[in-house]
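call fold(seq) -> tokens
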Amino acid sequence: MSNVLEKMKTRRSIRKYKPDMVPQELLNQIIEAGIYAASGRNRQDSIIIQVTDKKLRDEIMDMNCKIGGWEEGFDPFYGAPAMLIVLTKKDNPNRVYDGSLVMGNLMLAAHELGIGSCWIHRAKEEFETEWGKELLKTLGIEEEYEGIGHCALGFIDGEYPKELARKENRVFYIN
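ret:
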């Protein structure tokens, strides 16, 4: 089996991270994989925001926690020190699909590089707020974008999750 298929089979969502920062060299490689994701009509409308600043990371964590309805102090990013936020232009009818492909590439690339990852939701809700819109403006992003997801990244703290059996009866054939 090719290495890509093996990585697809063995990648797991990680929910406990060491506080050590992922080196920028590895983050750059993961980001590169994201920008090479397929997109409808090759629009390439998805953008990636890297967040490694602890203050901003914690602000996003607090907002995400509030949106998710969790108690104050819960970390929906499981201690991951880095995140890549994927957004896609709102006027793109394929925005959710295109952004999801970016997220998949990010997670597979992270796994290939020995970095744990987990897709964290609620980016859509975050970037619908005035806070989210202002954050985009501070980055020079004036167009309207929809948040697709956060890719939490970090070094795995503990054992790597085991592969779960695949459910049966998920493939049908018409010959």
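The CA atoms of residues 29 and 109 lie 8 Å apart.
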